[in-house]
Amino acid sequence: MFGGCYSGFADRKLYIKNKIEIITKYIPRKYQQIPKEENFLCGIIGYIGKEKRALPVLLSGLKKLEYRGYDSAGIAVFGEDKDFLVKSVGQIVNLEKKVEHLDSGNLGIGHTRWATHGVPDEKNSHPHRSGSITLVHNGILENYMELKQKLIADGVSFESDTDSEVGAALLDYLYYKTGDMMKAIMEFKKMVKGSYAIAFILKGLEDRIFVIKNLSPLVIGFGIDECYVASDIHAILDKTKKYVTLEDGEFAIVKSEGIELYDYDGEHREHEIKEYDGAFADSDKGEFEHFMLKEIYDEPEVIKTILMKYVTDQGYVNLPDLSNYKNITIVACGSAWHAGLVGKYLFEKNLHIPVTVELASEFKYKSSFLNEGDLVIAISQSGETADTLAAIKIASSLGAHTLGIVNVKESSIAREVDEVIYTLAGSEIAVATTKAYLAQSTILFLMSVKDKLEKDEYKQMVKVPLVIEKMINERAVYKELADVIYEHDDVFFIGRLIDYAICLEGSLKLKEISYIHSEAYAAGELKHGTISLIREGTPVISVITDEKIRDKTISNIKEVKSRGAFVILIVSERCNVIGDFYDKKVIIPKEMVGLEAIISSIPLQLIAYEVARLRNCSIDKPRNLAKSVTVE
Ligand code: AGP
Questions:
Q1: Ligand 1 centroid to 548 CA: how many Å?
Q2: Predicted confidence band at 338 (pLDDT cuts at 50, 70, 90)?
Q3: Judging by beta carbons within 10 Å of its beta carbon (0-12, 13-18, 19+), is residue 631 exposed, middle or buried?
Q4: What is the CATH number for 531?
Q5: Same domain? 522 vs 614
Q6: Range of the domain at 514
Q7: Which of 457, 501, 524 is nearest to 600 (CA)?
């Protein structure tokens, strides 16, 4: 009967153990639904500011917390004229539909709940209101039944089965008794046993959020004339990088101009405001189920970092100028090789320089026609791939100028090449590369720009992180597509030119983490043999982002469709594709400044992730694979 949620990553092991003990003590085994560890994640989000924008901030924050798993959600917003408290079961989109006509206020809290006990229905969802208190909670109030009995004896009534509502009622009761919220909180902390991250707001004190933290994580973010509260920094990173992490026993009064922080004994306390640099968190998946998912969620931040580092506010690109080279050779392996193909299409289209993309493992043994001063680019996330390192040494010995596009600083390849560009994706733990591949492709795109982005291109470019974030948050879409795919033995990808390069990467992502056989084909090539493998229901994923070849690829899609394929189309809005020749469609927004193809790799990453998840695969560490192949 323990309601509420658990979210403390660090305490999870302890919590599960305790929880199992608690359940064993109070609930007959036949009713025990021992939740799986990874299900114990809920999310808190809160906003207080001068602007009336609590509603969009709460919805955006809840979406960023979706990865934690949930089955219901709710928000409460206070404004000058009206307040509202809305809850919904199921996806956040259901909540969005309920609030779309409501005005925003400048104060609000939100919550995603994963029901552990107490069915996932609206009455058990958060926020919970009791008297003047509106509250969201993560964790478990272990002595809530005892507290509930006392409160009922004092005339308090309850709607839900949750411990969280007892928390709200107790705070309201103590506030009424003491007339002082600080005293009420101090008393609350003495009376309650268990883990909790609580945020609550008070009718009559609409200029603040109260937060209390014990064993479940809680951060406070700082904006300009506004502050945020969240279960983890990822929920508010698009709003601010400045934050403090509350420690156990602490509580705070959060106002738009800042916070008053108190320690367990109610003494004033200061915390140094940290700046999220994306580094320290990389080696910790935080509350994500897998590193791969966390690293996909990192992608908007990675693009922002690349733009800040390599593009000036005027749009000038601070990367090596390739225009003087007569030809370019790219050497790489795996996904890095796929990124090299993206570079080929971009360099040849925008710089009109012929590009050869070589598998490093082949390059070493084949006849080479490199001349003194030719450019050879090595692309490598790890900077330690033996084949790529060997290839770059051969290129150097032939007098080529070598350039590395590398993620790991001071790695062997980074130290071997004549000049190196770092992709700044942060450490990538999952064997299947996502954010590093995206970073490689983005760097190649920027290198294909002749010296600067035009004004409108630059304006589009700085919006790209937000567009990516919106796409990533549409997880229900990818789960639905994964449902179609995950039981099949063969999946095909088809595309032309740069879209073919994207298909190669999408196919590799799928097979390396889900173990489903998959192949990518230049769309025009399928009919020269492989189309014989297309049967009724065979999933075929097609990518179209280039209007020039749109109709050609559509005719190839119709060829497989007429043979029974289930077609999933990843298509740029700019291509204006309509018709019934596909079964499902994912749109890539048009204002993408030529990045449409690169961005189309993100839905493919998420589809692969959801398929592997449905197949219960070892997503971060697929069988037989290593993160860095340091043997030839
Ligand atoms: C990508 O998901 C794979 N893990 C693999 O193909 C990888 O891209 C390849 O081994 C190259 O690694 P590198 O980028 O570290 O050189």
A1: 31
A2: very high
A3: exposed
A4: 3.40.50.10490
A5: yes
A6: 474-619
A7: 501
- Assigned token pair, 134: 């509106």
Ligand 1 atom closest to 335 (CA):
8
Give a yes or no: residue 255 inside a domain: yes
Catalytic residue (one of 5, 19, 42, 239): 42
Query: Which residue among the candidates 123, 452, 558, 627 is catalytic per the annotation?
Result: 627
pTM: 0.61
627: annotated active-site residue: yes
* CATH at residue 81: 3.60.20.10
Integer-rounded Cα Rg, in Å, for the chain is 27
Q: Among 406, 437, 469, give the residue marking a domain's end.
A: 469
Coil/strand/helix, residue 416:
helix
Check if 42 is active-site: yes
Answer yes or no: do 218 and 308 share one domain: no
Q: Which tokens in the block code for residue 225?
A: 């004339």
Distance CA 575, CA 585 (A): 13
In a domain, 632, yes or no: no
Which residue among 433, 518, 619 has the greatest number of ligand 1 atoms within 8 angstroms of its CB, and so is best to mutate? Answer: 433
Asked whether residue 314 falls in the same domain as residue 172, the answer is no
Residue ranges lining ligand 1, Cβ < 6 Å: 333-336, 380-382, 385, 388, 431-433, 512, 628-629
Number of domain units in the chain: 3
**For residue range 578-603, what is the model confidence (pLDDT) as tens digits?**
889 999 999 999 877 789 999 999 99
Atom of ligand 1 nearest to the CA of 338: 8
